[in-house]
Amino acid sequence: MVALLAPPITENPLRVGLRMRRTPDPCVFVLFGITGDLAHRKLLPALYNLSVERRLPPNFSIVGFARRPYTDDEIRADLKASVEKYARNKPSQRPGVWNSFAEGIHYVQSNFDDAEGYKKLDKLLSDMDEQRGTLGNRLYYLSTPPDFYPTIVHNLGAAGLANSRPISMADGTSNGAGGLFMPMSETGENWRRIVVEKPFGHDLESAHALNRQISEAFNEEQIYRIDHYLGKETVQNILVFRFANGIWEPIWSRRYIDNVQIIVSENLGVEDRASYYDNAGGLRDMVQNHMMQLLALVAMEPPASFDAQSVRDEKAKVLRAIKPFTPAEVAHNTIRGQYGPGSIFGKPVPGYRQEKDVPPDSETETFVAARFFVDNWRWSGVPFYLRHGKRLPKRATEIAIQFKPAPLALFQHTAADELQPNVLVLHIQPDEGISLKFESKLPGQDIRLRSVDMNFNYGTSFGIETPDAYERLLWDAMIGDSTLFTRRDEVELMWTLATSILEGWKRIPPPTFPNYRAGSWGPSAADEFIARDGRQWRRV
Amino acid sequence: MSNTETTPAADVHPKDGTGDTAGSSQVVAAPNFVHDEDPGTLDSGAAIPVAVEYVDAQLNELWRDVAEAAQAKGGTQAVTTAQVLNLIVRATSYKSANGYVEAIERITGRHPCRVLVATTDPEETAIPVQAWVSIHCQLPPTGGRQVCCEQVTIVAGGESTRQLPAAIIPLLLPALPVFLWWPEGDPFDDYIFRNLADSISRMIIDTSTFENPEGALAKLASQGRSQWPKIAVSDLNWGRLTPWREMIASFFDPPAMRPYLDRISRVKIEYAQSNDRRAHVNRSQALLTAGWLASRLDWESVEDAYKLTHSELSHVPRAQINLRAGKRNVSIDLNAVEWTSACPGELFSVTLEIVGERPNDPPASVFSLSTSKDQESCVVSNIAVADADPISRIIQVRSLDAADLLDDELEIYSRDTVYEESLAMVGAFIRGTKHSTRSTTMSHKVPSGEPISAAQAQQPQQHRGGRPGGRPGN
User: Fold this and answer.
1) A98-126 b/e with 16+ CB inside 10 Å = b?
2) Cβ of B394 and A100 within 8 Å?
3) What is the distance between the alpha carbons of residues A349 and A507, in angstroms, rounded to a whole number?
4) Is this prediction's pTM over 0.80?
5) Please, are residues A340 and A364 in contact by the beta-carbon 8 Å criterion?
6) Which of B249, B255, B391 is closest, CB to CB, to A9?
7) ipTM score assigned to the predicted complex
8) What's the pLDDT tens digit per position in A429-464?
């Protein structure tokens, strides 16, 4: 009995003063769909970079689980080629370093619905705990087509692989020299966590269902819904910008802000994702998740602290303050579009319906504009305009906060319409930075005004390449920090809003598609839509 | 330090934008460069000579040129300045000044700053104080916009050397921290340092360049903070230990491994030493590693802790440090190994041992890190704890040059208390005085000398940062 009581753990005294708080506990990263594109392009390169840069424990291990037949050696060779191609740190530079990383990679071949496969997995994991000292800690990662998520989660639960267990003698208490008691982790338990890739559901109902299915095997604290947008340095910087500077708070409200525009503009078309995209569309692919998260970060109240629950509580409050549309309101508050043939950078490109794997009569939207109101004291009456489209003239993600104009045109010979309102722009990509537009006097005897941009650019101020979002997020998941992951209530609130739009669209006849030319800024209806409010889209 | 020769044609600014292999940097300068009377010292045409009082005005001109050049190239954005600190660098020859400036230029992107290079040269025995200004811009490797950094080189010689501090102080950008990089030797008795001391907030030294590191470390430990309380001192040689500290710390990150820290009784540290008998022995890295372990783990320095033993096997004496950890003795051996390293006394290996139950038993558990002899920039890590399979792994450790180290140092604006405590411990070893970090800071655990039994281990341990004085928790 006594052995079950974990002794209190002191901090590692040698960590004091080092930049990295600690390395994650020894663990096995169990990757479902290790043969897929995401695993090869993003996940393995990120893990290898983390390992080479000494951010992972020495016995960090990986188990791949997928349907194709592979031996351990074959999967290692395959992954090595991808890591060589996509990672900063190349295996060929230091073969010894790759070899000691690759020793920890194993493979289980199985169908995702085969209970036997999970038994094999369980056995392999137990063996690895013994041989590599991974202490029963697991990070499961679902990188398969989303249809398999429920099956995998169900089987993990059924095989007893989902529950963390209190430390028992059998689990790894060692009676080494001197009868040393060895607690396994900070909590005295080993941990099991699961990372779920997007798309997280197809609408509110399917998101509900998926949450329910996952929660049958895992607790909310174990679930990490990944949104790689939140791993981006500049997205995290929104919080630093807002809450580490005192000057914004007093003007960050309906009193001074006229409207907020969030734009995610892509010049690419559907590329090779048509089979997924044609079923999803721009609303599900971009607005429902990434753009709603950006909105929440801009509009949220200061959190009580910078921990996972407080930050996500505040984001959820914003999402809850946005009322879902009734079908009648949808027509008034949204615009959808689909691109036809046109040209990008002076080169002709096909229309959406002419793209490979897209049905010639597809009604899928590749452009969405929407207007939301956050009904709380801070934001009442301030419209948040969201605009997203594929095949727009250029690639840009930014949040523009437009302030109310100066109340009076004081300067002679300046017409009121010459006075431009101040705009604060948070540029997310491609050129991360912050700019503030204000009025200034043109040199000369007359008073003539000119808008100037005061521009703070990360690239020019700090000429560094920002770290990859996956490295940041995978490491956070291993260390157990879920701040940058989406919580269940957030996902469901975001789907509530998106689903209300989808429902509305079902009831009103779609516009005649295509309704914008590739390489233009979207359908003219979108310009009319915002012009009705006496405003216009900010030129990106 | 060893090279006092100066090439007659050495230039303070050797950059002309053509020889840069990375192709990522360029110097923007006004075209009206006029040669100095002494063409031997500055011949690149990159920097503009200007009287010290006009440095700011000249920099403004240069910024305008930069902006015009950017517009001429079709740039749409204004060139903006975002400066985060002042960096004064002390150079004792034109040649070394060039080297420092090159290192700084590599990190401009991360630390946009105004650089003031306080230069003297043994050849210059009678020149007035002169300044050269330039703006150095760095293009990000991926293309895109440039980061610019202001450089002012102030040269003096002979009599005018004493005017250098007064030339530098008015050129510091207001309200930003002032860093002084003193790349070679011990600054504390230097006239220039003493006259800049009131203006600087942080000084970066490099103990690998000290002629008598033991004496200097002891002096720094005893006098540094008391004489210059406002200056946070940091050490590039300490920065070279960061990867080692991280690797050693990561052995004990799993909570299961932490109790082993309380049972370490022998530490072996090896450092590189050239086999040239005339070469100085520099143990600073090994000593700082020992000081770090002792201060973090509450090992106490005892009287006459530090002993040097000469042997016939090597011309370098072996150093041994004897410490106490509660009832337990801890010994640290510092041994030279023949190894060619970039910097004198580079750490070669660290081994932490927990002794067996009887005196002559082999070590019960060993944690070791050793530089790989056949794979460049790699360290072999080994963990062998009782009753478990040993774990061995090859870890890549990028070698850090001056620019990398400086880059890290410029990120820290506050005091590095871990360094200061390690240094204080080193000072105590060398002076042979009793010292424990616990008496100056906080203690973190029970004194332990005997193996911890399972039952004892479940007693609540005293928390780090708990009661000063450190009685066993009960």
Assistant:
1) bebbbebbbbbbbebeeeebbebbeebbe
2) yes
3) 32
4) no
5) no
6) B255
7) 0.74
8) 887 788 888 877 766 666 666 677 777 766 555 555
